[in-house]
Every structure is written in C-alpha cells, then in structure tokens.
C-alpha cells in the first residue's frame, strides 16, 4: 500500500466523517420534528394557518438547497450579526429547512390517508383533536411515512456535501484538502496527483452509508405500504 493512503484515509474518517454525521443528524432530528408538526397542522381546516404552512413548504421545497445554504451562511449575518453560523451549522440549518418541508408534505399525505372511521372512533372515546392525532392518527401515519423517511435520510446524507462549498469540513471537503496537499510541490506535498483514488474512496464511503439505507427503504415500502 502506498505511504500516502493511510494518512489520507485517517483524515477523511477521523476529521471529515464526523462533520458529515453531525450535519446529517442535525437535519434528521430538526427536519423530523418540524416536518411532522407542520404536516399534522396542515390537516387542520383553518385556511390562514394552512396558507402559511403551505407557503413554507413550497418555498423550501422549491429552492435549490445550495441557495438556502447561501441564505443561511451569507444572508442572515448581513441582517443580524448574531445570526452568524459556522459552515457545518449553516449547512445543517439549510438541510433542516429543506428536510422539514419534505417531511411536512409527506406527513400531511400520510395523516390524510388514515380512514375517517379512525378519527370518529377516537372522538367517540373522548379524544379531542390533539389527543386523536397524538395517540391514534399520527402513530398510524408514521408507519406509512417510514419508507419515504428513510429515502429522505439518504438524500440528507448525500446533500451534506453542500457544506464543502462554504468550507465545512465533511467527507468531500476532507478529500479535497488531502488531494490538494498531495498535489502540492515538496516540501508541502508530494507533487503527485491522486484525485481519482481519493474521490473514488469518497464515493465508496458514501455508497457504503447510502446503499443499506436505500435497501431498507425498499424493504419497508413492501412491508408497510
């Protein structure tokens, strides 16, 4: 094995991968909480709130994610200096906005797919709107939501690479830094080009993370939908 492989792999795994996982975790948790809440509220027959939520969903589903990243990272600090975020945090917030819009739309469809009889049965047991949804409707909807949710997780992991554009240290940025280091002339680097091997390794790493999730989504779709 060439001498350069071990330090490059270690840097990508020890410095880049945690950044990717951090951004993905932020987007997954924040997007899920906001999305499920907004999607459930979308089923309320109250036009003003539905219009506001629909606007939120359409804006962040319609914008390219990179534009949202730039709005969070460059745009918000120009409005208020207290809204200045690091690259990974900014990418995580942008993916929360995008992911929550995706989850909200999927949740709305899942909740509305629950038969009306379930609502009526829960109401007959004395549940109000909140109780019906928390204890009866949403748990059933989550079962139908699970396959697209896993697919969304794959998209979130893949889109963490957008942090690289604003300098966030994740897997792709780690690979880029190592590629530049090796290509630099001695004594800084080796003066060697190993871009194919490095970015091929990055691709393999993303495949290792994403492929099991895509198969899980396909399995859940067959079993649960």
Task: Summarize the model shown.
With 225 residues, the chain is mainly alpha-helical. It has helices at 5-41, 47-62, 65-79, 87-112, 116-124, 129-159, 171-183, 195-224.
Structural write-up:
- The protein is 79% helix and 0% strand.
- With 225 residues, the chain is mainly alpha-helical.
- The chain is elongated, with a radius of gyration of 22 Å.
Write the layout of secondary structure elements.
Elements: H1 5-41, H2 47-62, H3 65-79, H4 87-112, H5 116-124, H6 129-159, H7 171-183, H8 195-224
Helix pairs in contact: 1-4, 1-6, 1-7, 2-4, 3-4, 4-6, 5-6, 6-8, 7-8
Features:
225 residues; mainly alpha; MetI-like fold; elongated
Task: Provide the number of structural domains.
Answer: 1
Spatial separation of the terminal alpha carbons: 47 Å
Shape: elongated
Strand content: under 5%
The CATH topology is MetI-like fold
* Number of DSSP-assigned strands: 0
User: Rg from C-alpha positions?
Assistant: 22 Å
Annotated CATH architecture: Orthogonal Bundle
**Helix/strand order:** HHHHHHHH
Largest sheet, if any? Answer: none
């Amino acid at each position: 094995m060439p001498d350069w492989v071990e330090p490059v792999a270690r840097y990508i795994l020890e410095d880049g991968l945690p950044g990717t996982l951090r951004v993905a975790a932020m987007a997954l948790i924040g997007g899920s909480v906001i999305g499920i809440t907004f999607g459930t509220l979308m089923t309320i027959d109250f036009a003003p709130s539905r219009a506001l939520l629909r606007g939120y969903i359409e804006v962040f589903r319609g914008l390219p994610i990179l534009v949202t990243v730039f709005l969070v990272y460059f745009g918000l600090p120009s409005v208020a200096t207290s809204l200045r975020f690091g690259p990974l945090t900014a990418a995580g917030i942008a993916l929360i906005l995008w992911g929550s819009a995706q989850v909200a739309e999927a949740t709305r469809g899942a909740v509305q797919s629950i038969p009306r009889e379930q609502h009526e049965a829960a109401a007959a047991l004395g549940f109000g709107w909140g109780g019906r949804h928390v204890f009866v409707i949403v748990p059933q909807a989550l079962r139908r939501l699970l396959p697209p949710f896993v697919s969304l997780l794959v998209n979130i992991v893949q889109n963490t690479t957008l942090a690289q554009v604003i300098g966030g240290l994740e897997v792709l940025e780690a690979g880029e830094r190592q590629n530049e280091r090796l290509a630099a002339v001695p004594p800084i680097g080796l003066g060697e080009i190993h871009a194919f091997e490095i970015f091929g390794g990055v691709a393999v790493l993303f495949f290792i993370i994403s492929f099991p999730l895509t198969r899980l989504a396909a399995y859940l779709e067959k079993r649960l939908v």
